[in-house]
């Protein structure tokens, strides 16, 4: 099915939840890797539109395999799942995880996240 977008940019998510310098570092690194590009918006503000969705798609597929298909996670995926679970729990919502799943799939994935 069609995935619903939250309407929030990657940059705004980082800026709302992390130190602005960390966000800048991560976004510039993603630009160097060719995943996003740096654009100048109004008043010189930078925007970071995605140009290569392949890494995101691969990461989502791996996450779904671990959370829904009982695939054994590697150490990277274990760390990512721990970060997602902790971040979602501390944001009092599932802002980082839930938008990437259909409702029924999320209901099955949530217990694995906890």
Instruction: Give the topology string: H per helix, E per strand.
Output: HHEEHHH
- Mean pLDDT across the residues is 81
| Envelope shape | globular
Work out the helix count.
Answer: 5
Beta percentage is under 5%
Radius of gyration: 15 Å
Low-confidence stretches: 1-5
Q: What is the strand tally?
A: 2
Could you say which structural class the secondary elements and strand pairing correspond to?
mainly alpha
Helix coverage percent of residues?
A: 55-70%
Give the CA-CA distance, first to last residue: 26 Å
Report the major sheet.
2 strands, antiparallel
Strand order of the largest sheet: 1-2
In words, what does this structure look like?
55% of the residues lie in helices and 4% in strands. It is mainly alpha-helical. It has a two-stranded antiparallel sheet with strand order 1-2. A hairpin with a 5-residue loop joins strand 1 and strand 2 (46-47). The chain starts with 9 loop residues before the first helix and ends with a helix. Residues 1-5 have low confidence and may be disordered.
């Amino acid at each position: 099915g069609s995935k619903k977008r939250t309407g929030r940019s990657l940059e705004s998510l980082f800026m709302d939840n992390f130190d602005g310098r960390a966000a800048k570092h991560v976004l510039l690194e993603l630009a160097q890797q060719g995943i996003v590009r740096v654009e100048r918006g109004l008043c010189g503000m930078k925007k970071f539109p995605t140009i290569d969705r392949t890494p995101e798609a691969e990461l989502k597929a791996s996450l779904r395999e671990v959370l829904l298909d009982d695939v054994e996670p590697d150490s990277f995926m274990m760390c990512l799942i721990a970060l997602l679970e902790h971040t979602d729990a501390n944001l009092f919502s599932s802002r980082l995880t839930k938008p990437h799943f259909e409702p029924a799939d999320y209901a099955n994935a949530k217990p694995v996240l906890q």
